[in-house]
Write a structure and sequence with these properties.
Elements: E1 2-4, H1 5-12, H2 16-25, E2 31-33, E3 36-40, H3 41-48, E4 64-70, H4 75-87, E5 93-99, E6 104-111, H5 113-126
Helix pairs in contact: 1-2, 4-5
């Protein structure tokens, strides 16, 4: 089983930026898949010096991946939507791509179900 940087941060009770730093420094082995790092169980156990089974069980983690496509949106409206979503995206990872020629906005939202639902409601209200 492979872990994301967020999952490792939760398991080790560290900030995500700290885990990313360990990966970039080479202290924690990881493989980059797309834009995300993946850490194997073996590499994580090697890093911590203890098997994961001996660690206390963590709370369940649920993450939602959502792709939102908005067609016929002007650059001005896209700026308004992206500013609002990014400004309120606490706990979310958001990627936005705007195609000016097609007047098309694509958003990829990753995060907990509640925060993702809030972001989607905001997108709906602004579009």
């Amino acid at each position: 089983m492979d872990f994301t940087v967020s999952q490792v941060a939760d398991l080790l009770d560290l900030h995500v930026k700290t885990v990313r730093g360990y990966v970039r420094e080479g202290r924690l082995k990881a493989v980059k898949v797309g834009k995300q790092y993946r850490i194997s169980r073996e590499d994580l156990e090697s890093f911590t010096g203890a098997p994961l089974a001996s660690r206390p069980r963590q709370d369940r983690y649920v993450e939602v991946s959502t792709i939102v496509q908005v067609e016929a949106i002007s650059r001005l409206d896209m700026d308004r939507v992206s500013t609002a979503v990014l400004g309120s995206a606490s706990g979310l990872r958001v990627e936005m791509i705007y195609n000016e020629e097609r007047a098309s906005l694509k958003m990829i939202i990753l995060g907990g179900p509640g925060a993702t639902a809030d972001a989607l409601r905001m997108v709906e209200a602004l579009t």
